[in-house]
Design brief:
Blueprint lengths: L3 E5 L2 E5 L24 H12 L6 E9 L7 E9 L9 E7 L8 E7 L13
Antiparallel strand pairs: 1-2, 2-3, 3-4, 4-5, 5-6
Length: about 130
């Protein structure tokens, strides 16, 4: 199945299949070039590699790029759940690591199922 995402400064959000992507107004003036670590092509490549880690029935609902303590490592926090209706109870947080910006594979570093009584606190500057 085809999945559409909206990407904004290190975060991506899955768009529902029936909802078309929002139209973006043309910028009034040229935007400054983004640094290579934030290049849209790399972020899209990372999303595709992360989707390969999942079961076919699962979908990434939200992906956020995190700051890493190691300078070259790239880390993401994903919110994942099955695409079927009523599967909200099966939501999980996944931590995904890339060894460096141009890595062609990623590893799963954390799996945290979210239950109805789960409280998640993220601490830090990022």
């Amino acid at each position: 199945p085809r999945q559409s995402f909206v990407m904004v400064k290190g975060a991506a959000r899955l768009l529902p299949a029936e909802e078309p992507p929002p139209a973006e107004p043309p910028p009034a003036e040229p935007l400054p070039a983004e640094p290579p670590c934030q290049a849209p092509g790399k972020q899209e490549q990372h999303l595709h590699l992360m989707m390969q880690l999942l079961c076919p029935q699962d979908a990434i609902r939200l992906a956020v790029r995190l700051e890493s303590a190691r300078p070259r490592r790239v880390r993401y926090l994903l919110v994942v759940r099955p695409e079927e209706a009523g599967a909200e109870a099966e939501t999980a947080l996944l931590g995904v690591d890339f060894a460096h910006e141009g890595a062609t594979h990623c590893t799963l570093g954390m799996v945290l199922p979210l239950w109805s009584d789960t409280q998640v606190f993220l601490d830090g500057d990022g």
